[in-house]
From TrEMBL:
GO terms for molecular function: DNA-binding transcription factor activity; transcription cis-regulatory region binding. Pfam families: LacI, Peripla_BP_3. The keyword Transmembrane helix does not apply. The keyword Transcription applies. PANTHER family: LACI-RELATED TRANSCRIPTIONAL REPRESSOR, TRANSCRIPTIONAL REGULATORY PROTEIN. Keywords: DNA-binding, Transcription, Transcription regulation. Residues 4-58 form the HTH lacI-type domain. This is Transcriptional regulator, LacI family. It comes from uncultured spirochete. Gene3D superfamilies: 3.40.50.2300, lambda repressor-like DNA-binding domains.
Length: 342
């Protein structure tokens, strides 16, 4: 049996091939009655559009890409990232676009960008000096960053990570803690020839430093331990085992993700210690699980799903010729039992 073509559908419906093309790509250009008639025949004949023919007609692929900053397994192990991706996907579905998940290639975002076959891109955690930004600009590919940096080169959707980090560290310090361990994000968005990692990591460390300085403490002091930690329960659990093997045990742990903080909380209790009596624990994200664990987790709320929705909406509007604008979303310190001393 030969493959069904637009010509076959047009003949069966008694309309032109242009009308069929409009039904498949621009339904608003034909009457509802004609659209329904054509689509009923499309369904009956089992027609599958040729993506390359569609591209010639619409000058678009009908897809946006999400460049992942970490290994795909690590990303989907973090509930906050899952919320962001869900928000992007929901907006793509509403606008009838596909979403392509683009993992690192040979450990690099820029390699994934070079091999992408999409109309527009969303990146996570990259700053205006990142090599991928230059690539996208040169090729006139619309793109938006999530948790990047507001600049002339990048349209960004995110929260004020520096002040959010400052608030949660100040809260921990105000509880009397001076021996503090930080479970830092392990990011893969490092630009070539840069001493920094992701923008999120930079800004949160700046916030931590400002809070510590108010108590005459520095990030470089021995009383502040910093461990790189993936955003997973296992990584948080393993980090606590390392901390408890050190001669000086921290009295508080501030994790840059809730899921790592929950892993830390579990490990502390497995070692016969109390939270927050022996070690206080704070996280970041306010994922649903943070209020369900015992004790409930002190954290920073940030709207993950809304980040994704706003980023997808913005980049799709830019694809239609709109001017991109930065969006700063709200955050909030949520104080729960995991840091409150009796």
């Amino acid at each position: 049996m030969s493959k069904v073509t637009i010509k076959d559908i047009a003949q069966r419906a008694g309309v032109s091939k242009t009308a069929v093309s409009f039904a498949l790509n621009y339904p608003g250009r034909i009457s509802k009655k004609t659209y329904e008639k054509i689509m009923a025949i499309v369904e009956e004949l089992g027609y599958v559009p040729n993506p390359f023919a569609r591209t010639l007609t619409t000058k678009r692929l009908g897809a946006i890409g999400l460049l992942l900053p970490q290994k795909i397994g690590d990303i989907f192990g973090n509930p906050h990232m899952a919320q962001i991706i869900s928000g992007i996907g929901e907006e793509c579905e509403r606008r009838e676009f596909s979403l392509a998940i683009l993992p690192l290639i040979r450990g690099k975002i820029i390699e994934a960008a070079r091999k992408s076959y999409v109309d527009a891109l969303i990146t996570i955690g990259v700053g205006p000096d990142h090599e991928v930004v230059d690539l996208l600009k040169k090729n006139h590919i619309p793109f938006v960053t999530i948790d990047g940096e507001e600049s002339e080169n990048t349209i960004n959707i995110g929260i004020d990570h520096k002040n959010a980090a400052k608030e949660i560290m100040l809260h921990v310090l105000q509880q009397g803690h001076r021996d503090i361990a930080i479970l830092a994000l392990e990011a893969d968005t490092k630009p070539i020839e840069s001493t920094h990692t992701s923008i999120v990591l930079q800004r949160r460390f700046q916030g931590f430093q400002e809070a510590l300085e108010e108590f005459s403490i520095s990030l470089a002091e021995p009383s502040v331990q910093i461990l790189n930690c993936k955003s997973s329960m296992q990584a948080g659990h393993e980090s606590v085992q390392i901390l408890l093997s050190n001669a000086k045990r921290p009295t508080a742990i501030v994790a840059m993700s809730d899921i790592a903080a929950i892993g830390a909380l579990v490990a502390i209790k497995e070692n016969g210690l109390r939270v927050p009596g022996d070690i206080a624990v704070a996280g970041f994200d306010d994922i649903p699980e943070s209020s369900l664990v015992s004790p409930a987790l002190t954290t920073i709320f940030q709207p993950g799903r809304q980040k994704g929705t706003e980023a997808a909406r913005m980049v799709l509007n830019m694809l239609d010729g709109a001017q991109g604008t930065h969006i700063k979303l709200p955050y909030k310190l949520i104080v729960r039992e995991s840091t409150l001393r009796a």
